[in-house]
Design goal:
Keywords: Chromatin regulator, Dioxygenase, Iron, Metal-binding, Neurogenesis, Nucleus, Oxidoreductase, Transcription, Transcription regulation, Zinc, Zinc-finger. Residues 568-585 have a biased composition (Low complexity). The chain is of the alpha+beta class. It is built from 21 helices and 17 strands.
Length: 656
């Protein structure tokens, strides 16, 4: 086996993850960290001499600056080439430009007003400025938190991405090296840190993101804990920029919405609406070879200037095109989040990134995977709306339609570009088919004049969880139905309950025929005992010519006797059955039964992923009756059905 070639003074093999520089004399390669050459300094070296060659040939030769307006400062300054973005000349000209005021499009709000319900009702289409972060639920370090403090919490050895602003080029360096640069009396360059994500560091404990970003986030609501793909961490960034740092016009990855908070210093945002025309111009500009020589703000109708000062939080919606100038040394915190309000725009931005061949480093991690997870959850949301006979908000219907189109295209693309991000437990074709079917149902409901119904978020989530649990149990029952087994006491109990419900709606002749046909199929001894017990009582009760009140009392009594019989048959379940029977309410004679109408929510908050939802049957408070035990599965449902019999008997005609 061939031995790997060794390099550098450390005599180590080549490591693609570490920056290296070649000596122009001996032609050996050296790690920048071993010979004290930073990656961003290497571009300034014209002829490099390693430590060994330096002793014989003298120090390395540096490039000579010939201009201040080009990324390559060695180009002759003959006035023939235009100014490029990020250079010192560009920054001076930018500061001299005039722009429409950001007040024309900025929504000034109190943090307590920025709620999910507000954004779902009024939309999230314009940037929002909030001047008191506490009202947003945002928690950050104090304003005297320094760059050295960042190093202390994150660790000086962490390798970070740094932008050389004058060249608009990205390089890597250790955080400790950036801190040293930041505090140096003379900064040879303008360096900017905008992508330090610190969720996996001690500094994460100092920051709580805004409530709105947490509650609406797809990742927080839909990403399962057992996902094969690593969870994207994009909610906690620390931005450290020196004066005159500049980031050219861009749309945040995946069309994510953004929150920014300036801890100290000042930033200037140049904001452009994501209209179809502006997005088309942006894509054309982004793909042009002379992009850095054209100021995109001049290509659109309006580019708004918004100054964000210390203590201000800015929320930028999906797809807004923006550039950022750091007008004085600044530390800011921010984060990105995908959400349900602008699904179509998010997908459009992602497809634009693909067409522009954006490197994976600058795209939302596993964007397609999160879309599959979202589609699976939104399918349940649409089913619940249909079952409630009311429509979800229009933005959600449009978003699901856009999602269906995208999922179909991605599935077709898998044939020629196999790079699947479809989660293992998702059947993609079936999911797309079911989503399409639900949209068709909703369109039909819409044509019939059915509209959205108001409801509270908590009620909707409880109902959603109950329905999904029931649907899952039904699926499991169907899955196991192929293996025949003797009916349990609970099965017989449920069968009798259904039979009583049917009797309340049929005549005595129909009742006798149906009852005999149904229970002739039950062959176990316990079934026979249960049948004789309840059937004789019910026949007697139905044939007596009592008044309605007397009949109701006797029916209630006989059903209670049957409940007691079933409790005695289920060994070990008495205590939990007693605890759950208290939840079934039978209205007294003359009392109006409580009707359980349910409403669909106007502001459909994201239902949590099953792994993040509370248990469907939380254990009852430990006491003498329950001893902390959970009731057996299905027992609560069966007994609540008996309560339903009594309710129905008060307002449904039945034959005696």
């Amino acid at each position: 086996m061939a031995t790997a070639q060794l390099y550098c003074v450390c005599r180590q093999p080549y490591d693609v993850s570490r920056f290296m520089i070649e000596c122009d004399i001996c032609k050996d390669w050296f790690h920048g960290s071993c010979v004290e050459v930073e990656e961003h300094h290497a571009v300034d070296i014209d002829v490099y001499h390693c430590p060994n060659c330096d002793a014989h040939h003298g120090p390395s030769l540096m490039k000579k600056r010939r201009n201040w307006h080009r990324h390559d400062y060695t180009e002759p300054d003959d006035g023939s080439k235009p100014v490029q973005a990020g250079t010192s000349v560009f920054v001076r000209e930018l500061q001299a430009r005039t722009f429409p005021s950001g007040d024309e499009i900025l929504q000034q709000m109190h943090g307590s007003q920025v709620t999910q319900r507000y954004l779902e009702r009024h939309g999230f289409r314009y940037p929002i400025a909030v001047h008191k972060m506490e009202e947003l639920g945002l928690r950050l370090p104090p304003p005297d938190f320094s760059v050295k403090d960042v190093e202390r919490y994150v660790g000086g050895d962490k390798v970070i991405d740094v932008i050389d602003v004058a060249r608009q080029a990205d390089s890597k360096m250790k955080l400790s090296a950036f801190v040293k640069y930041y505090y140096s009396p003379q900064r040879p360059k303008v360096l900017n840190v905008i992508s330090l994500e610190f969720s996996d560091t001690k500094m994460s404990e100092l920051v709580v993101v805004p409530d709105i970003a947490q509650k609406m986030s797809w990742v927080e609501n839909y990403w399962p804990d057992d996902s094969y793909f690593p969870k994207p961490f994009v909610q906690k960034y620390c931005l450290m920029g020196v004066k005159d740092s500049y980031t050219d016009f861009h749309i945040d990855f995946g069309g994510t919405s953004v929150w920014y908070h300036v801890l100290w210093g000042e930033k200037v945002f140049y904001l452009i609406k994501p209209t179809p025309a502006n997005l088309a111009l942006y894509e054309e500009w982004s793909s042009s070879p002379n992009q850095s020589e054209v100021f995109f703000g001049e290509k659109v109708d309006k580019c708004y200037k918004c100054v964000v000062r210390q203590g201000t939080t800015l929320l930028i919606p999906t797809g807004w095109i923006h550039a950022v100038l750091t007008s004085q040394d600044c530390m800011a915190f921010g984060g990105n989040f995908l959400h349900n309000l602008n699904i179509g725009m998010q997908l459009r931005c992602y497809e634009m990134e693909r067409r522009l061949k954006t490197p994976d480093l600058f795209k939302f991690p596993y964007f397609e995977a999160i879309c599959w997870y979202v589609a699976k959850n939104l399918l349940e949301t649409l089913k619940e709306s249909r079952e409630d006979n009311c429509l979800p908000p229009e933005y959600l219907i449009k978003g699901v339609k856009a999602l269906i189109t995208a999922l179909r295209n991605w599935l077709k693309r898998e044939v020629t570009e196999p790079a699947s991000e479809v989660p293992d437990h998702i059947r993609p074709s079936h999911l797309i088919k079911m989503l399409t079917k639900e949209i068709q149902y909703l369109e039909l409901m819409k044509s019939q004049g059915i509209s959205a119904c108001p409801s509270t978020r908590s009620a909707h989530e409880r109902r959603s969880h109950a329905r999904r649990t029931a649907r899952r149990l039904r699926d499991q029952d169907h899955h196991h139905s192929h293996s025949p087994k003797a009916p349990s006491n609970l099965d017989i109990f449920e069968q009798h309950t259904q039979e009583v419900l049917k009797r309340l709606e049929m005549g005595p002749n129909e009742e006798d025929a149906s009852l005999n046909l149904k229970f002739n199929k039950v062959s176990t001894a316990s079934a026979a005992v249960a049948e004789r017990s309840l059937d004789n009582d019910l026949r007697l009760g139905f044939r007596e010519r009592d008044s309605e009140g007397e009949h109701h009392a006797k029916l209630k009594h006989r059903i209670q006797e049957h409940k007691n019989f079933m409790d005695s048959q289920g060994s070990g379940s008495n205590s939990s059955s007693e605890a759950w029977s208290s939840h079934t309410h039978s209205p007294a004679h003359g009392e109006s039964p409580t009707l359980g109408y349910q409403y669909c929510e106007t502001s459909l908050s994201p239902p949590l992923h099953p792994s993040k939802r509370p248990a469907s049957n939380p254990p009852p408070i430990s006491n003498q009756a329950t001893k902390g035990k959970r009731p057996k599965k299905g027992m609560a449902t069966a007994k609540q059905r008996l309560g339903k019999i009594l309710k129905l008997s008060r307002h449904k005609p039945f034959f005696v």
